[in-house]
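Researcher: Here's the sequence for the chain we discussed earlier.
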Amino acid sequence: MYLRTQKTQSSGVAGLCVKFHRGANLDPKDKIGVTHLVEHILLHASSPYLDNIRTANGEFQGETTRSETSFILLCPSEVFKSCAENFLNEIFFFHPSKKDLEDEKSTVIQEIREYSHDSISVFINEALALAFDERQGHDPIMGDSHTVSSFSLDDVFSSLKELRKVQNAVCYAVGDDVEFLHKYVEKINTNIILSFGNKEEGLVSPMFHALSTEQKKSSDPTISSISFIFPLPDIASRDIIATSMLLTLLTTNRGFNLKGELRSVVDGIYDIIVRPLLYGDKCFIQILTNVGGKSASNFVTMLQQKLRSLSNFPASELEALAETQYQYVHFRQSLLFDGVQKSIRSFSHMPEKQESIIELPSHLDIHIKANFIELVRSIGEEKNSVYTVQQ
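Model: Thanks. This is the structure I predict for it:
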């Protein structure tokens, strides 16, 4: 398990986040939803570790995505050591009971019923089904009620064994006394490897981000949801820094103002989300938005034109863009320890293995620059892109 700590000036609060680079994408086909259920159980079980944290006024939460499972702790600084040790013991060593399993199965089934009526969630799944030709009858993270109700303790323990491989994990800690964690994490690494006897490299993959559902007022009473999905070429051989640079190009106004220019010519755009997707060994970029219904076709045309312009940029302009995006990747990494809550989530827009980059080069390497330019041109060419519009 990677450990990154930062000693900060005392703010009265300390934080810890453990991210496992294993999410719902790696659930067995007949066990979709078991990772999400495990996350629920670990944070809601009848456990002395959790009771100790609650007694110390600590707070904790979790999140399961397609590619990651995260556990977050916030607590008063003066009790951080005891809370952190209890939290890590819960995540890595707690053994749930049958009652814990049955209680959380009921909770998850209720969550599935509520989620199935969310229009944005339904659209995202439909867009993915059309792009990848794999229409599913269940939520890809939570699964379906029938499957969840069938899970046994053996299923939970099997999922826990895979999740707890230390090579899957990154631990972030921020506070005014965090040095004790180095020895404690070393102990966890040793115990987990001895328990499972598996030192294979963990699977690291991009975060799967939720689309904001915030609605804004518009003169157009109808709403269209739009999805564009673009494949990235040969991602397995690519420098992850170049991929991060591509994401910053599409999500900020530094050198290529995608959001600003589209909003200036298309009425009623609510938000534009750009996120990485991992399917098998291939990586894709997805652009999501909601617009006023009458502006949907205009948005599609303008987005295609804007992205196509990337292919026509002179090489000198793309090299200048590379420098700009590289500086921003440096800036985003520096946010990691900029505060407790911000720090533990500051890599949310970074793709594969970004968390494991301890030191970035001080200058943009020629190979990173070449990879970035090739990625940009591939997006501009729009080869094999798929877009979906739904009112």
